[in-house]
Request: fold
Amino acid sequence: MKVILLKDVKKIGKCYETKDVSDGHALNLLIPQGLAIAATKDAVKRIDVMKSRIATEDKVQGELLDQNIRAISDVVLNIVGKANEKGHLFAGLHNEAIATELSKQAHIQVDPVFIQLENPIKELGEYTIEVKAGGKSAKFKLLVKNG
Reply:
């Protein structure tokens, strides 16, 4: 039976591939669990349209990502946090907080996953933060001040 995979399936294939599998495997496992659909003419057409839409969206996302990466290199981000007398922050700064501040202050949307932090920032000071995405990277300055 020919099926179109809707998700990556180990030892069978990747998402949106058309595969020939046994009837029992398709009817008892793949189709009931939503991992595949029967490869009818209509289903093939729908999947082709879906693939082209996804490819277009990925291209647009890639272009936006390139623009954001180029814009990030000139940014100096200021974050105010509460700290003790020794300069240690009461709450560490994580990727999500930095991404939120980038959005607010510089109007640049960056997924927190792309912000490279080994550990949360826990002290006042100046930091150089790297953003890596799509094989490209940029760095910006982060100033953490006591508030």
Summary: The mean pLDDT is 90. The beta strands are 2-5, 18-20, 36-38, 76-81, 88-93, 115-116, 121-123, 125-133, 136-146. The chain is about 35% helix and 30% strand. Residues 69-146 form a domain with the Ribosomal Protein L9; domain 2 fold (CATH 3.10.430.100).
